[in-house]
Design brief:
Layout: E1 2-13, E2 16-22, E3 32-37, E4 41-50, E5 53-59, H1 63-69, E6 76-83, E7 94-99, H2 103-106, E8 114-120, E9 137-141, E10 148-149, H3 152-156, E11 166-170, H4 173-183, E12 190-193, E13 209-210, E14 213-214, H5 215-218, E15 221-223, H6 224-228, E16 236-238, E17 244-246
This protein binds FE2/S2 (inorganic) cluster.
FE2/S2 (inorganic) cluster binds near residues 200, 204, 205, 214 and 215.
């Protein structure tokens, strides 16, 4: 277990905070760490900054993430990693599609050639849209409080996708599935960041399995071609207790 000290805390949206800490280790965009919260447990979190100062971006979903959002400058943070396969980096124009806190793992990919569709339920919940050049940015909200009212698909259909060298997608599985279905058969390269229950993070417990692959070791980033082979994607997943549950969208 590695430990470090929190050196900065940023409130990104009313419910999302980024926690910065020093960690002298090479981490690639898309990789994650298992963060240990004493007395509660471990959760996987992608790095939202991979430079000298590392950062995780957390929204409170349950006891572990709730405890993380309460860390302050000077608090200790415990973790292990980095784990997982990173995003494939390309030289040309890229399109980032982030739903809700999914923008966190896409943040290390932002550069001057990045375009983005940033979506959230409301205007207040849009994450890291301020990091994208205004002319390259498409905002989408469920309630229409800013940008297009609807889903990232409504923005996607207005773009010429052949311009992009790569499309990176991260967000809830329903969003991933809809985007995957709309890109299927088109001449595009895309990678999807998937989420499953993770317990060990190192390919031992099988809690994160999808079609015989393990997200923690074989993913959690998968290409279009790999997703195409998955029967369980968008259909079922394992619960915390190991029971297979049907994803009802
Ligand atoms: S989290 Fe244990 S095998 Fe992936």
């Amino acid at each position: 277990m590695i430990h470090s000290t929190v050196v900065r805390v940023d409130q990104n949206t009313p419910t999302v905070r980024s926690i910065g800490f020093k960690w002298d280790c090479k981490v690639l965009p898309g990789q994650f760490i298992m963060v240990w919260i004493p007395g509660i447990g471990e959760i996987p979190i992608s790095l939202s900054s991979t430079g000298n100062l590392k950062e995780i971006t957390v929204k409170s979903y349950g006891p572990a993430s709730d405890a993380l959002t309460k860390l302050e400058t000077g608090s200790r943070i415990f973790f292990r990693g980095p784990y997982g396969r990173p995003f494939t980096l390309v030289k040309g124009k890229t399109l980032l599609i982030g739903g809700g806190s999914g923008m966190a793992s896409l943040k290390p990919l932002i550069n001057e050639r990045s375009y983005a569709i940033v979506s959230a339920r409301t205007r207040d919940e849009l994450l890291f849209s301020d990091k994208i050049h205004e002319g390259n940015l498409h905002l989408v909200t469920d309630d229409g409080s800013i940008g297009i009212k609807g889903t990232p698909l409504n923005a996607l259909e207005k773009l010429n996708l052949t311009e992009f060298e790569m499309i990176y997608v991260c967000g809830p599985e329903i969003m991933l599935k809809k985007i995957f279905d709309s890109l299927r058969g088109k001449k595009v390269r895309a990678e999807f960041a998937m989420e499953r229950t993770m317990k060990c993070g190192i390919g031992v417990c099988d809690s994160c399995s999808i079609d015989g692959l393990q997200l923690c070791r074989d993913g959690s980033i998968f290409s279009m071609e790999e997703v195409m082979e998955m029967e369980e994607f968008g259909r079922t997943k394992l619960s915390e207790s190991g029971r297979r549950i049907i994803l009802n969208y």
